[in-house]
Task: structure prediction
Amino acid sequence: MTQRLLAAHDGTTAFIPIIAHAFGKRYDLPVPLWLFVFGGAAVVFLSFLLVLPRAVAPATAGEAAAVDRVTMRSPTPARWVIAGLVGLGLVVCGWVGSQSVAENIVPTFFWLAVWVAVPISCGALGDWTRPVNPFAALARACDRPALRRALLGDVRVVSWPRALGWWPAVALFFTVACGELIYNGTSTLPAFTAWGLVIYAVVSAVCGLLFGAEAWITQGELFSVLLATWGRLGWFRFGAEGRRGFGGGLRVPFEAHVSRVTFVLLLLVSVSFDGLLSTDAWKTIRVHVALTGVTFQLFETAAFAALALVAWALFGGFAALVRRAGDVDRSTLEVLTGLLPSLLPIAFGYLVAHNAEYLAINGQLFIPLLGNPAGIAGVKLLPPPFNDSYEINPNLLPSSVVWYLQVALIIFVHIAAVVLAHRVLTQASRSVAAARRSEWPWIVAMVGYTMTSLWLLAQPLVQETSAAALRAATAPLAVLLR
Result:
């Protein structure tokens, strides 16, 4: 089960397991689960029928010429210094401060603010983080010919191999996501998080020196790639390519590379896997698989990787059907890459829905932590309420309100995905008739994923359990793993 830093109901803080959607109290579904799931799917399918006849303007010359990269901005030393000082302060707090997760600001700052809140803000506003990304700043600071000559004996950078693509960013994202979802008992310890920041800072500096800052930031540096990808959805461009407005950056094509597709699919898979960990189905697996401790964590890691492969197989298969049905003159990889902009809003919608109440409740932890960031006994930097006297409000957002907003958001982003896919496939197909044929396989994928998302969203609420249904299915697996 996923563990996160939670504000307890008595106003104190503790590191205890919570359900994936962070509901403060139980709220039962107002309708049967089957009606809820199929009703949402029906809404998405009806939107497809409305969109299908619509004409689509051809892509502009500017959109066709756009390149999938992180736009480098002019150096901003003052902001970089501030960001560096904040990062250094977090490292010091992690090293010398309390190792209680609830008393040290480091876990809350990184795992709640940096890993969840900042990506959501970029998805809403655009990627505003480039001027304050300390890891990108380190890469640019080390990207100096004189430094390379002194350390390496050559001023030239090492060419970034095309085969390498975005695989470093993929590996880094998978590692950090595993830290959040699986190994959180260790990864959220203040000292562990601090050491992770230091090691990654060294990696960024070395890669900036070897490959040059632009290559590393565009295809390797985790936070630059992650936040620039989410930033395609945001209203403002902040110097990135694309038009202003929500989803304006989605018209910039993704690079048709297996690693780039994998990175975007991981954004989708990671939140789905987080939801899966809170289901009765996964609890049943935990009971029937005779593994414990690190061994079971390795099993969960393998399951996470397997889910990413399943997503690749499913969406790749549907992309192949789209190509065949629409007689699209592109490879299956190119078709799937062209459809990635329709998957990104879904990933973002589920990211928001999955974490809304978690952010609302646990975000309040910053108020007492700001008065004593390191959790050192006797330190009081700020007056009340910035100390232990602050009482967390676990009912800041009523569960029923959050629930309906989540459902509306999930359905809305799937409708947006249908509209985006319609635009891409209409432009890529040889004729209007072929374009309409090509959309049918993809709407099957969208409806299927809508149903899956709504089912996962409902799991913390529904009264039914899938334990009995899965007992027979998991029994052979349990025997093999004993």
User: Anything to note?
Assistant: Residues 3-481 form one domain. The first strand starts at residue 3 and ends at 7.
